[in-house]
Amino acid sequence: MNADQDAALMGRLRERAPMGFLVLGRVGMDLTPKPAGTPIAEAVDMGVSMGGSSANIAAGLVKLGAPASLVTCVSDDAVGWYCLGQLDHYGIDRSHLRKVKGEERTSLAVVETRMEDHQSVIYRNNAADFQMNTADIEAIDFAKYGALITTGTVFAAEPSRSAAFLALDKARAAGLPVIFDIDYRPYSWPSPEIAKDVLTRAGALSDMIVGNDEEFGFMVGDYDKGFEAARDLATQAPRIIIYKKGPDGAVTFANGAEITTGIYPVTALKPTGAGDSFMAGLLASICAGTPLETAVLRGSACASIVVAKPGCAPAMPTPTELEEFLSTHPGPTTP
Fold it and tell me: Is residue 300 assigned to a domain?
């Protein structure tokens, strides 16, 4: 790996940060039984909030002071309209969002706020966000943005898959760093074989890849070889690889080195939202000029903050909340 090229990638992220992030992927509605700890089967009251991994990342970025624009489709119905209102509420630009009329529906998730026997039930049959097409991408002036973020889910079906690959090509041509969250969701894909091929292609076009052990292992066809896969990807091209290990922290491959970092232990209310918040905290910190290792730790702190609160987008921290957490928490752990 060429350390100078890795440093150049960090420099590009910081230089282009004021232009904002272009985020590909879904926005949805989350329903959560109240009070916290209530199983879905026993619910008599529900809280409602914005969901969807890409929308959550965008919300986290904006709350931390980094502009973000979401590229997706929503159904032209009450659930889709709710999502539009939530994007406006968080200050996420939606000028590249399209409403679709027909039988497609915006994703809906019913998610418990508890760790033991946690249930997340996601309704994504005939998902509206998979209707994002190449015309949606052609309409974007990529030169106006600082970086492109995509999650693996956008590649799971057509026409979204072709649109996403076109976005990667256009971003690279415009000099935008491409950040790829593998985010493998088996239920979204027609087969594991197709997912492996497509996600591997997307990774090859990316400057930064973030994933966990299973996701990296999946990309090489062996769940037991996730670490080796992540390390190998880091040597194939000048890119940054962040290999997440859950409670055991993360390993970052960059600048010809392996940086191992811990986590900030908290009493978690739920397991959801951690990856989205990690990504937002990581990227916002890099763009603010924070060294990479510190940025990874700040992303980990954001993840801990979110799992300790109900909801995902509502739980994303502001800069003040993040600094207060870091100043009062005894962590991070020693990996």
Answer: yes
For residue 163, the domain's CATH number is 3.40.1190.20
Strand partners, 1: none
CB atoms within 10 A of CB 81: 14
Residue 95 in tokens:
């000028």
109-112 long-range contacts (CB < 8 A, ≥24 apart) are: 109/28, 109/29, 109/30, 109/31, 109/51, 110/30, 110/31, 110/32, 110/33, 110/40, 110/46, 111/30, 111/31, 111/32, 111/51, 111/270, 111/272, 112/32, 112/33, 112/38, 112/39, 112/40, 112/270
In a domain, 198, yes or no: yes
The CA-atom distances, in angstroms, between 146 and each of 97, 103, 174, 177 are 18, 35, 10, 8
CA distance 132 to 147: 19
Domain with 52, as residue range(s), is: 3-328
Res 296 pLDDT > 90: yes
Is position 173 within any domain? Answer: yes
Residue type present at position 202: A
Residue that the structure tokens 């998979």 belong to? 130
| pTM recorded for the entire structure | 0.95
Q: Tally the domains of the chain.
A: 1
Cα gap 118→109, rounded to integer Å: 13
Which residues have a Cβ under 8 Å from the Cβ of 7 and sit 6 or more positions away?
255
Distances 110 to 28, 72, 166 between C-alpha atoms, Å: 11, 21, 32
Q: Which residue, 122, 118, 126, 163, is CA-closest to 24?
A: 163
Q: Phi/psi class of residue 192: alpha, beta or left (left: φ > 0; alpha: ψ in -120 to 50)?
A: alpha
Q: Report the C-alpha gap between 137 and 139 in whole angstroms.
A: 5
How far apart CA 321 and CA 325 sit, in angstroms, is 6
Q: Is residue 335 part of a domain?
A: no
d(C-alpha 192, C-alpha 207), whole Å: 24
Q: What is the pLDDT of residues 75-111, one digit of tens each?
A: 999 999 999 999 999 999 999 999 999 999 999 999 9
